[in-house]
Amino acid sequence: MNDILAYAETDPVLAENDDGAREAALRTELLVQQYELLAREDRAILFVVAGLDGAGKGSAVNLLNEWMDPRHIRTLAFGTPTPEELARPMMWRYWRELPARGRIGIVFGSWYQALFAQAARRARDEEALESMAAAVRRFEAMLVADHVQVVKLWFHLSRDAQRARCARLAANPDTAWRVSPDDLKVAKRFARLREAGERVIASTHAEPCPWIVVPSADDRFRAMRTGEVVLAALRTPPPAPSFAKPVKVADGRLDNLDYGDAAMKRGAYEKELMHWQARVGRAVRQARFGRRSLVLVFEGKDAAGKGGAIRRVGHALDVRQYRIVPISAPNDIERAHPYLWRFWQHAPTPGRVTIFDRSWYGRVLAERVERFASRRDWMRAYEEIDDFEAQWVAHGAILVKFWLSISDDEQLKRFREREKTAFKNFKITPDDWRNRRKGSQYRRAAADMLAHTDTPHAPWHVIATDDKRTARVQVLRTVAQALERALSTGDET
Amino acid sequence: MNDILAYAETDPVLAENDDGAREAALRTELLVQQYELLAREDRAILFVVAGLDGAGKGSAVNLLNEWMDPRHIRTLAFGTPTPEELARPMMWRYWRELPARGRIGIVFGSWYQALFAQAARRARDEEALESMAAAVRRFEAMLVADHVQVVKLWFHLSRDAQRARCARLAANPDTAWRVSPDDLKVAKRFARLREAGERVIASTHAEPCPWIVVPSADDRFRAMRTGEVVLAALRTPPPAPSFAKPVKVADGRLDNLDYGDAAMKRGAYEKELMHWQARVGRAVRQARFGRRSLVLVFEGKDAAGKGGAIRRVGHALDVRQYRIVPISAPNDIERAHPYLWRFWQHAPTPGRVTIFDRSWYGRVLAERVERFASRRDWMRAYEEIDDFEAQWVAHGAILVKFWLSISDDEQLKRFREREKTAFKNFKITPDDWRNRRKGSQYRRAAADMLAHTDTPHAPWHVIATDDKRTARVQVLRTVAQALERALSTGDET
User: Which domain covers residue B470, as residue numbers?
Assistant: First the structure.
């Protein structure tokens, strides 16, 4: 990339003989394409607006709202994080506002804010910058793979033109409000800001989301160019992101699992259970826990004992402090958003416990086996999930994942029991029997999941559940120990 | 009501010879009924938990979570309002968490918090108390009418038993955390708190949501009684709330509307429009507006010019400051919640503008005419909407409602135009033609709406839109004047 900003600094203007016919045609076509997007609902489009302050970003977006149907465009303006936003992992505020398929979002103050701030520092931390840029590239590639087209516009103009534009606006009482103190400081720091911009662009100018630089000195040129870029995006879906097949790794824990043969005695069970429940209870009432959060994930085959284990964990907690999130097939709204969107809605907040009864691992388990997800979709999910969990952990979440493993014989026994018992009858459906017949496929999916997503910050705990009592005690002990370790060291894992 | 709390103060205990069989039967039946509720999805149930501190409310709720399937129970604990909650009208935090049909919610720290605090004041303001109680009664009746069963439990015990219970818990290190400083103060202020409780109960003990007092001195008695109350609620839907037919009133504005015959000239239009846009723009940039909000409602027949008017309003504003909320038929999630739920999601926040393109008036317009809402549902909506708008206005919203009225001839002309023009073709559907044939029914519904919901705090502005230019200028002028009036007087209307 050879000085990507240079052309914009020639401050091109729209030719005088342009008589407005081009604008009229553009507007018609924008509207037509917008309604077609809305009718097809094959993807969402997110326009990321960035670039120099005082380059007319706000005016460009205003114009788009005027030229298109603004009822189906969401302008997302992010400023200083609110207390609500600060209480959650950094990307939460962007995730929750992602447009649904068929919709258009325009983002001001996007995930480039932090990156740009780092790039513009006098003592720039190159390593931090590159790690932030890599996170941004992964995020955007994931959005594109999940049917959110990301179109990035960088508004730029020469130093003189920037200064002249601000002066012109400031002189008119009806437009003076559009000039912020930051806008006026740009000319003085132009060289540094320009270099920072180049650095940000260079580090994030990658397929499937390259930057498009919009020369912004001339209002009409900027407007037409913006309109044309938007139109091109509406007309052309993004290229499918390249797809890295996960490296083969193996996890043998399920092969060698000891399901035990002796049932724990009731007396011992009650004593043990109460002991670990008390330790969990004490841990989450420590003042230190007020700056952390606990996220529990329960996965396992039908009848493996997820519900029973979750209930015993709940019993150790104040009911006002935790929330159980049962995950089943996504609803229409969820389906219209990227896969991880619905889990981000439940991002942990300080001092709270969130218990997922099934989770984001559905993609690499049921969705894989039942072919609800394409091969490329579930294969890329391993990396996306690692990334997603790392963000929650980095924000202080103590993440404990359980694979509850039941033997085939014991599962059969429990299915039959459920059919016989009146109030357990609700717990057994034809689906359960069908899933059981696909046992080997589920086993393979579980083994792959354990191999690919057993990370240091979010390890899996495999627990044999043929003896319910032993299993429940093990779950409580694992939670207690994870909490105590995390809270005693102040370590993030 | 003759001393409703007296029996609870006898501190009844469960008979010794009760051998657990009763509990087992209760648990089975609770689970069966819960799954049936989930399968039927005919209503949601909200348990309101209130009463003396230190009466074991938390333990009772914990037990319910243990006895039933906790994955389908949401415990909603409201404490001191968060900044996010304070930025919105008071009831927002309760609205947003209402359970969907089939689900159970348990509310701690409900809308009774404020009422109880007022009742317990030394210098109690009886008038304020009664007005709060009336609001609570209306809210609960509305919930019940909208398929949310409200079951209210008041936990109570004698002063001695309360003191003894707290002392017992405090003595054990594993339960000491459950005793709060407030719990310990109860005994000293017992008489006043008891009287305040009685006052709250008396003022809100009404069909369809009477209070049920749960004697709480004995853990097992409290548990069984709570379980039985919950079971009864699961088994028995609430009685249909009584239904007050709206008083007949008339609004003649639509009969005598002058649609004009001269079109505004382009030059005058542009000058006028810019003038009022600038005034709107200046008003919302005043510092005072930072403590208020602007809510615009646009209603009107198809092709009446809602979209065009909204776009002109948007042009006066910074695109980062406003949001357009287009309202169409509710989705499944919205349908599973009370009618006003989806509008509460967009409750205004300070300094922001929300523009509704169609609105909550759908219930008394399209839903009435198309018979999507029953007669009793749309008839009770007038009062509910007035109440709803009053809450937003009381929180600082400047609410301006437009009925854009187009003549039949002009509508026909616009429909034909739309069919001919490529990019307007999206704007006309068979539904539009069908609605047009129901013109007289819609006209009557609109007249009734104007008559019943034209309140001092949220008046309707009827605007003839046959001449688009005149109409748009009128809309902008109305908005500018409403803003200026509200901001200059500091008046809430």
Answer: 266-489
